[in-house]
Design goal:
heterodimer; A: mainly alpha; Serine Threonine Protein Phosphatase 5, Tetratricopeptide repeat; 3 domains; 13 helices; B: mainly alpha; Rna Polymerase Sigma Factor, Chain: A; 2 domains; 0% strand; globular
């Protein structure tokens, strides 16, 4: 059998003939018994060779399985040594990070746990006991504790009108603040949005206070206190931030505090007065 | 075999549709994709099979996939992995029928080609008859014809089987094909069963 006829038979058996060729070929088979027999033999030959090809391929697959065992495990499990090493490294990095982060918690509805029980101020009265042992030398007053005890997050700071699914910056900020993720808030508000700038500035200031960055918080409250609807609120919180910040000017914030407590109708007059009296009782050193 | 990395599915597809060496390199690359075996073993496990069943099904699926690519049945109309998954699903059903003929797979969504238990039985019988014939062509010819059927070049066959030249390899292939023809003619009773087309 010549190669051309063999190819034609192969194309017929594999269904590769064009319709016109197919019609002609089938007509030829009806009249040519030898051709019809050759087609049948080719079919069997092809099937046998396919089986041999299958055997070769099967052997190759099995050989590959032996030489390179298939990865049916997840790569994390397969490379468990690297996974464990990475987790260990992340753990150490996490511990180091948190060790360097200020750990002072922001009191919201309760006084700090480390505040002596006899000096815990309440919302209405900040009257620490004057019963200080005389034998001991006078301790410098920790004004930060007073500031933190007097601090409350304003109820209307976080707007609730935004949809929870909203993805704009202030929505993300509100969400992070609600979760007390103050560093995230600060990160999100590194640049203040042009719209709702005052709201954003107020939230950032409170986040800084919450994160223990009191000097930064004082700066933001001072900025906020220059004008606008947050002005008087910013005065009060600015005083608290300055009280908590290291190295702040005591005379300055005392003067501010005094001003707030004497201003009739100031929304934080009552709180300022309570704080003032509490400091006055304890704090000659404050008044230096 | 030289390791070739394909950057994406399009490159792999182009290689599968390209020259014979490219096609084989692409197949090897495709075979070594761990996701395929993971997918098949997971699918088989979810259907109550074992890891070994998964490997067997993967092997069968890959053989079918290779044949479909080689004979031009795969035209790149779907992604390679999707195509392979389809074959593997089908092979798993066939595997179940072979293993447990009474298993109820009538509810399953089957591929277009009907594969009834009777047809599986007929195909198995054909395979047994063919195996009996092939034993008579000898091991060397079996391997040679298998490589030839997989479209390996004469140079590759020479290298794999250690012939002195491409021409010697070609002569050997011709000789083995003639031997196969002769064996078929010598067994008319087998030929009578095999001469009618049986779709697999």
């Amino acid at each position: 059998m010549n190669e051309k006829l063999y190819t034609l038979i192969e194309d017929y058996n594999l269904g590769r003939l064009a319709p016109a060729q197919l019609e002609a070929f089938e007509a030829a088979m009806k009249t040519d018994a030898a051709l019809a027999a050759a087609v049948q033999v080719h079919r069997v030959e092809w099937e046998a060779q396919e089986m041999l090809a299958e055997n070769v391929l099967r052997a190759q697959i099995r050989q590959t399985f032996v030489e390179h065992p298939p990865q049916t495990q997840h790569w994390l499990l397969k490379n468990w040594q690297w996974t464990a090493l990475t987790l260990l490294f992340l753990g150490i990095a996490g511990v180091l990070f948190f060790q360097k982060t200020p750990t002072e918690a922001l009191p919201q509805n309760a006084a700090p746990a480390n505040l002596p029980t006899d000096t815990v101020p309440t919302r209405d009265t900040l009257v620490p006991t004057p019963n200080v042992p005389k034998a001991q030398p006078p301790q410098p007053l920790d004004t930060r504790k007073y500031a933190m005890a007097a601090y409350r997050v304003p109820d209307d700071l976080i707007t609730t009108t935004r949809g929870e699914e909203s993805e704009d910056t202030l929505s993300l900020v509100n969400k992070a603040f609600t979760e007390q993720n103050y560093r995230r808030v600060i990160q999100l508000l590194t640049t203040l949005p042009k719209d709702e700038r005052q709201e954003a500035l107020a939230i950032r200031a409170h986040a800084q206070f919450g994160a223990g960055l009191y000097a930064d918080a004082a700066r933001d409250f001072a900025e906020l206190g220059k004008g606008g609807i947050y002005r008087r609120e910013a005065q009060w919180f600015g005083v608290l931030a300055q009280m908590a910040a290291k190295g702040s000017d005591k005379k300055l914030w005392m003067k501010e505090l005094d001003k707030i407590r004497q201003e009739e109708g100031h929304p934080y007059q009552k709180e300022a007065d309570a704080l003032w009296r509490g400091l006055e009782v304890r704090g000659e050193r404050v008044r230096e | 075999m030289k390791k070739v990395f394909f950057q994406n599915d399009a490159e792999l597809l182009a290689a599968l549709m390209g020259s014979e060496p490219d096609r084989r390199r692409a197949l090897q690359h495709f075979f070594e994709n761990p996701r395929l075996l993971q997918w098949v073993t997971r699918h088989v496990r979810m259907q109550g099979g074992s890891d070994q069943d998964g490997k067997d099904v993967f092997e069968e699926a890959f053989i079918v996939f290779e044949r479909q690519v080689r004979t031009g049945h795969f035209r790149g109309e779907s992604s390679l992995e999707t195509w392979f998954h389809g074959i593997a699903r089908w092979q798993w059903l066939v595997f179940q029928r072979k293993k447990r003929p009474t298993v109820d797979v009538e509810q399953a969504v089957l591929p277009s080609v009907e594969q009834t238990p009777e047809k599986i039985l007929i195909l198995e019988e054909r395979r047994v008859i063919l195996q009996q014939l092939l034993v008579q062509v000898g091991e060397r010819c079996q391997k040679l014809l298998g490589l030839f059927q997989l479209n390996h070049s004469m140079r590759e066959i020479r290298e794999m089987l250690g012939y002195s030249s491409d021409q010697v390899a070609a002569n050997e292939v011709h000789s083995c094909r003639e031997k196969l023809k002769k064996v078929i003619h010598q067994h008319p009773e087998s030929f009578d069963v095999l001469k009618y087309r049986a779709e697999s």
